[in-house]
Amino acid sequence: MKTVRLTVAQALVRYLAAQYVVAEDGTREQLFGGVWAIFGHGNVAGLGEALYAMRDALPTFRGHNEQGMALAATAYAKAHFRRRMMAVTTSIGPGCNNLVTAAATAHVNRLPMLLLPGDIFITRAPDPVLQQVEDFHDGGVSAADTLRPVSRYFDRIVVPEQLLTALPRAIAYLTDPALCGPVTLALPQDVQALAHDWPESFFNERTIRFRQPPAEAAEVAELAEILKNAKRPLIVTGGGVLYSQGGVAALRRFADKHGIPVGETHGGKGALAWDHPLLAGSIGVTGSPAANALAQDADVVLAVGTRLQDFTTGSHTLYAQAKLLSINVNTFDAIKWGGCSIQADATVGLTALSAALGDWHSEAAWDTQARRLCDAWRRQVAEIVLSPRAALPTYAEAIGAVQASSADSTANDIVVCAAGTLPAELHKLWRTSRPGGYHMEYGYSCMGYEVAGGLGAKMAQPEREVIVMVGDGSYMMLNNELATSVMLGHKIIVVLLDNAGYACINRLQQACGGAQFNNMYEHCLTGPDGAPTIDFEMNARSLGAAAETVRTVAELEAAMQRARASTKSYLISLQVDGPQCTPEGGSWWQVGIPQVSARSEVNAARERFEEAVRQQRV
Fold first, then answer.
1. Looking at the domain 217-377, which fold is it?
2. Whose CA, among 36, 47, 445, 551, lies 20 to 30 Å from 302?
3. Cα torsion for 529, 530, 533, 534, to the nearest 10°?
């Protein structure tokens, strides 16, 4: 057996560079699009030297915050529909712990990312080293162990030979359709530098084949029988449709052939074009009137590739009356709430179920009603984004202006968002005709995802215009990767809608009967100078981006055209009406409301809560 002598770090990097996938056009691409790195004493000497030697084969990108780097990597995988991914390396201590939020975001959203945090010396000779977290009860615990609960697979490399099993396992988890998520390989800094004689064959190029688990005939037959007896079926589509090869076409064929309307989750939006006659739009708490009306009347709901998050189900009140069916590659998701399921890839499951249904079609009256509601909602959306509802511009008007600034926006643009009021507005109002055009991180709703996520999406899809729509609250949490986008030459457009605080949670606080408190600047404890006046345009310029401030919807549309023509990242700041959001649609969402309160508003909200709870699926 031929061997090659390399350090652990060198072997790891060489192995990653040798992993390939086949793109849709048949060309081969590297599985890893690169490695994000902020170097410190835990990774600069070992992994840093190895990455430098392989920089032409596997590029290294430097970010400004470890969380931001990992969020960019998460978005990169999402924009590639989980077919390509990135690795992220940090030092020990704070750098490692800054990964936890991003790892949780990827974990919740079932997105692949390889985390390579530096770790303390395995020999413990110099303990405690700088940044070491000492556990008084377990000498083997380090900061890297905080990543265990947010990793699909975790391993600590304590001797070189472990890489021979750990790396194939890592790749298997990262590319598994059901188990996909973040993987952590903790790398003690002394072990990174150890040399070993590796089999040369370990570094042979390998092409990953993504599996599409088949459907069991008995499960298909059971679901087909239930659907054949349905009169008012509805499909709820999730991200699993987009991640499945052929899933978009399979969903369209299934809906068209059997006459079943489709409600889309945040993860599944874009699987059908916005103007498809059977697309009822967003469903659930942030749902459209069309989709939610159909959900309330449906006798069978077929959930395809969705986690059935509470926003999708209206905390299990929206279609509690319906028989729940599921097609999901993940057993954990497929069996939720006692539904009958096909545990298979979305494309395979839909194709098999359609064949079993034959020429069966939903009732003509249901088909007609669905098409009428879908068409009415499309026309209503066109009116909402053009209709002023407040003295200041509204979120809806801003969305309309962004899309009106380009004739091909529904086909080319990628909108990126994650938290606050905008997810609800975009879920209802954003129009896209191309998969991936709606890039919403709403599994974890991670404030601060937006700018870093926009960068990751742009790196994955450089030919498309990436538009980050973000509130001032999320922008203030994590905006420094705007500088990274300038440094790397990956232009994004940031549309910052300033509502002077956390307006979304302020509305929720009031809906729960609470007083306005600690969300909007005007309701926060401040010093003698009061709340700061933040110049977002100046902030963006200080990070190297072009920027401007606008005051009207017309000015926003004109600024968007300048931003589209720009060659570098561009921020547009617009003050909006915080309380005003699109009232059409929506459903109940369960939030814990006190049973006892001195406020009559809270007591009234509790009464409404108890009435809604009685409508939940049990």
1. Rossmann fold (3.40.50)
2. 445
3. 100
